[in-house]
Design brief:
The complex is a heterodimer.
Chain A: H1 16-24, E1 31-37, E2 44-50, H2 53-70, H3 75-91, H4 93-104, H5 108-133, E3 146-154, E4 157-162, H6 169-180, E5 184-189, H7 194-212
Parallel strand pairs in A: 4-5
Antiparallel strand pairs in A: 1-2
Helix pairs in contact in A: 3-5, 3-7, 4-5, 4-7, 5-6
Chain B: H1 7-19, E1 31-35, H2 36-51, H3 71-86, E2 90-93, E3 109-112, H4 119-122, E4 129-135, H5 138-145, E5 153-156, H6 161-168, E6 175-178, H7 183-187, H8 206-211, E7 214-222, H9 235-251
The chains are: A alpha+beta, B alpha/beta.
């Protein structure tokens, strides 16, 4: 792909063909969109659609519905999707590195730390999730007479509110364990860096499709997260990286 | 930075530890305490390395550091540096914005002679600014490093890993890297990541990073005998029987 600004009247920071479909993935549009600019150049990235309260309600309704089916998918199958996601992120790293750099202004070596974080977490949780989520048989109050099982139940719908400083690592890597545990995820990235989270959601959809051999699921039918960027125009502060 | 640190290696890796994402990394270094015996060598090499850093917004691997992300970040960074300089701090490297490169670029900055009363002494800048302090002992370094409400990440430098670990255990931070800045602990995703004090909430990575997303459900099945007095047994006899059982179980060290 080309990374040079398009030669239009108003130079854009990333190709519209890349930005537009990702912006369209959000459950948004009910509130006025917000222009987003690339910090390093001042060039416009695009007008990011904003979610209204009704959009957010819709996203949660979709997520709650999708979660019931997703929780029935065996953990062994869920971890294969994580492994596929790992491969996609590494194979398509040139694209996501361009996005992360353009949204944050950071240099490429520092953006690559985020790609590495996502790859490591995908591999790790794919390897350990089956054991961590397996039923446990602890000692009962009366040996032999009391038998006990402990099961791990997903919370349901998990909201991942991610900051702008490590937009790929802190959106995707925190969503991966939530998803592999059988939850649905609502992503609420910072406006400045929503594109990185939307790209990860797109990659997760691709990984899911590849695994199941299903047609590309729309957010309304997806077992992967229904995104809701952004719920409110105020930027969130980074809490951890 | 302990007296037996590999100074050249530390002076090289500290660049990444201080200036990743232009310091907009929650785990990045903003204060470095250096043993007096190696202070001059470390500062000379570190400042030299920082001055050699390349800045730019190129979408390739040609630049060492990029831009800040917002005007408010640039305002904070400029404000913290200007405040320190006005109160007597010395700028060893950087110390200025670079609007010629882009609207929010700021040079990687190293400060010395930072003292209480300056904002950078105890407040987080979240930008490309690091202060170096000379200390006379490990004790002084540990005390100064812990003189903060924050506690996300720290780093200890020593050629003696055991000595480094002993100092690390006394630092109030959720992760402490020995002979690395942040990525040894961050990248070890089998271990939990999160802060102490007012830094961070909860944990990511490790089993903790997954188990926070589930609720446990306990299903207990009782067989043959109930956990209640047997037919014809008084409550008092039941209590005595169970008291005996508890004693036996403890004696056998059963859980």
């Amino acid at each position: 792909m080309t990374t040079a600004p398009e030669l239009t009247a108003e130079p854009t920071a990333l190709p519209t063909a890349l930005v537009k479909p990702l912006f369209d993935r959000g459950v948004a549009g009910g509130a006025p969109s917000v222009p987003i600019f690339a910090p390093a150049t001042g060039h416009k990235i695009g007008d990011l659609p904003q979610s209204s309260i009704a959009d957010i309600d819709r996203a949660f309704a979709v997520a709650r519905h999708a979660q019931r089916d997703w929780a029935k998918v065996p953990v062994k199958q869920r971890v294969e999707i994580l492994r596929r996601f790992h491969d996609i992120v590494l194979a398509e790293q040139d694209t996501i590195l361009d996005i992360v750099q353009t949204e944050t202004g950071k240099s490429r070596p520092h953006a690559f730390d985020e790609v590495g974080d996502v790859a490591l977490n995908s591999r790790y949780y794919a390897a350990v999730a089956p054991k961590l989520l397996a039923d446990r048989k602890p000692r009962g109050v009366l040996p032999v007479l009391t038998s006990v099982e402990v099961r791990n139940r997903p919370k349901g719908v998990v909201a991942v509110i991610s900051p702008w400083n490590y937009p790929l690592a802190l959106s995707a890597s925190d969503a991966l364990p939530a998803l592999v545990a059988g939850n649905a995820v609502i992503a609420r990235p910072d406006n400045q860096t929503a594109l990185s989270a939307l790209w990860a959601i797109d990659a997760a959809d691709l990984a899911t499709t590849a695994e199941h051999g299903l047609p590309q699921p729309a957010p309304t039918t997806s077992t992967t997260p229904a995104p809701a960027p952004p719920a409110a125009p105020s930027p969130s502060r980074p809490v951890s990286a | 930075m302990l007296a037996d640190a590999d100074v050249s290696k530390a002076a090289k890796l500290a660049v990444r530890a201080c200036f990743s994402s232009a310091g907009q990394l929650c785990e990045s270094m903003e204060r470095i305490y250096v043993d007096a015996t190696v202070y001059d060598q470390f500062v000379a090499e570190f400042v030299g390395n920082v001055k050699n850093m390349t800045l730019g917004g190129d979408l390739d691997y040609s630049k060492d550091m990029g831009s800040l992300t917002f005007q408010r970040q640039l305002d904070t960074v400029s404000g913290h540096v200007d405040d320190a300089v006005a109160k007597g701090a010395k700028v060893l490297a950087g110390g200025r914005a670079r609007p010629d490169l882009g609207p929010y670029f700021y040079e990687p900055t190293v400060l010395a002679d930072v003292a209480p009363g300056m904002t950078v002494y105890r407040e987080e800048t979240f930008g490309p600014v690091v202060s170096v302090y000379k200390v006379d002992s490990d004790e002084a370094a540990i005390e100064a490093a812990n003189d903060t409400a924050y506690g996300l990440n720290a780093s200890v430098w020593s050629k003696d890993a055991e000595r480094g670990k002993a100092v690390a255990a006394r630092i109030n931070a959720g992760s402490v890297n020995v002979n690395e800045g942040f990525i040894a602990a961050w990248g070890s995703v089998d271990a939990p990541s999160g802060g102490l004090g007012i830094s961070g909430q909860g944990r990511r990575h490790g089993p903790e990073g997954l188990l926070k997303y589930v609720d446990t459900q306990t299903i207990a099945v009782q067989r043959v005998l109930p956990i209640a007095p047997l037919p014809g047994m008084s409550e008092q006899m039941w209590a005595k029987t169970m008291t005996l059982v508890f004693g036996v179980m403890k004696t056998l060290r059963q859980k």
